[in-house]
Amino acid sequence: MGLTLTLGCVGEAEIAEALDESADAFSTAPGEPNHEEITVTALSFLKPSVLTALKVGNVSTDVAYHFSNTAHFDDCNFSGGAAFVAAKQAEAVRALGPGIPLLDGDALAMLAFGRSLHAVQDFYAHTNWVELGGDVLVDQSLTAFPALAPYSAIPSTGFIVVQGDKPKRAAVTRHADAPYPEYAIVTVRVQRTNKYGLVSGTVEYEPGNYCPPPVAMTHDELSKDKTSLTDRTAQHLAAKSLAVQQTRHEWCRLNRLAHDAWGDAGTARLAAWVADPSSAPDCGIE
Ligand SMILES: [Zn+2]
Description:
binds zinc ion; mainly alpha; 9 helices; globular
């Protein structure tokens, strides 16, 4: 579905107000706007109108990509989720280039970047990253979001991406009868070495389930995306904190990718989104 962001001859307060209303309309968790909070906390240095546009792009992902596991890192579709993030950020970078009128390009870039933020935030809430003890980001590079190929090891933690049929000589197991959070711990055993296995919850209405049956868990069994799940408050807070850090990091990645594509003109476009440069992260881009 399309979103029209009218950034014409109106004041920033009016834009923010109009967009805030549409953000409410898209919110799928009334009373608990987690994606909105994460985005604002991570990127508080941006102009209010930019933050609102990013929130709309983010939250409307649940509507526009309702049936797609890639936009939410569901169904153990890690390579699909990673490709979604990379594609949306590439789209944002293209929109910041010459050839697209300035305001149209900015609106498109905010929409696409907001969508990528939705997926990286869902990553921590929908996978067992936190239950496995993951307390660092899935990726801190400044190149395009990495591929997360099936049964590859994630460099930051060594977790193995569990996606699709297991390799022939590997064993993929978990203790399904254990209480939470123990039951969420997946082990991948290869050549007598145990490693942690990264999975995400399955969602029935999203086609394509890549979780191997012995370790598959439903979205409800694994998600920690709201405070009302009182048996997993600590995990919810840990996932939210990582989502904030990843979101802040994605701002730097976007700056780097825009600089790679368009040079200083690319980063200048993004600098115009910033209200308070002193609280923006130092992305190390000259
Ligand atoms: Zn989602």
